[in-house]
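User: structure tokens for this one?
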Amino acid sequence: MQLDFPDGLDPERFLRDFWQKRPLLMRQGLAAYHSPVSPEELAGLACEPEVESRLVLERDGSRPWEARHGPFDDDDFASLPDSHWTLLVQDLDKHLPEAAALLEPFRFLPDWRVDDVMISYAVDQGSVGPHVDDYDVFLVQAAGRRRWRIHTRPVNPEHCIPGLDLRILPEFEAEQDWLLEPGDILYLPPNVAHWGTAEGDDCMTCSVGFRAPSWREMALSWCEELIERSLPDGRYLDPPLSPQMESAEIRPEVFERIGEQLRVLQTDTPERLRDWLGRHLTEAKDNLQTHPREAPLAPETFEAELDRHGSLQRTGYARLAFSRGETTNRLFVNGQSIELASGHTGFLHAITQERHLHAGYLAPWLEEPECRELLRRLFNDGVFEFPDE
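Assistant:
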């Protein structure tokens, strides 16, 4: 599956002229693409407790633009009106390999920026209203038709209609209006106001979202890292005291003592920053955690089973990234950091780039004890599995 850019565009020019700058409509950008699930299968997934899902009713709910959160049951769907509702299912790429395949055409962008593939199913006039998002998104029309209206005027994301479940813009005047057919793609940068409405039944849109952590979120995580690693347990202790005539005064030696202790938070190294950031960017949601195997395989058993199965595949919940250093490389897996010798960059590229790893492809690295043991560790941690499991 390959992304078909409009004439004159390629990934390099797209990144230069459009990425995080302006919208782009790609007619038949994925001409052969079809939804990885049927409407009935999507509804079934929305009934599973580990799957994040929402129903949005513009009207006929208990209030305008009502948002109901899953898991749902058959009665929830049986009671829905004939029009003006949408079902949204998050993180479908983590639950279904067929949905994860949609990420492949967009891998000219960094994997660590990927948030998820969300699929929305809508009946006629189904919508989530006019709004803005703070992330990049490719809206891939997978079935049916959806009309998208957008405008690029500045919008205060805090200026929304009060009292609603959703962040709906109070005013929306479209600058551009497109009707998307199956295979069409609309790219939207952050903070572009948009409003998508299904025209006809069985409209399915796949949203490939790219997350961007906020500066405050990262600063908070970094400070927590420094506090955990640099500050001792315990509490402030006074320096040697003498009687104080002005009891309300905070004396200079107090500032000096506290400042000396807290100055450790201002010191860091590139290596520590690299380790923290890789862990931070690969952290998974609470409902999307990998879990160690109840019966981990010993080295000889793992090698025999790999030879018997012939391949490994990445589990859907695994988030992987790596970084190169001067003397060591690091693999980041769901918020964990693993150090490897710098000579194993090719191995890290292989296990992070490919979701399906054939034993023959891995053979050169399986000769290396460090690589072989890391692969076994990742298997036992639930990051990889055999394809028929």
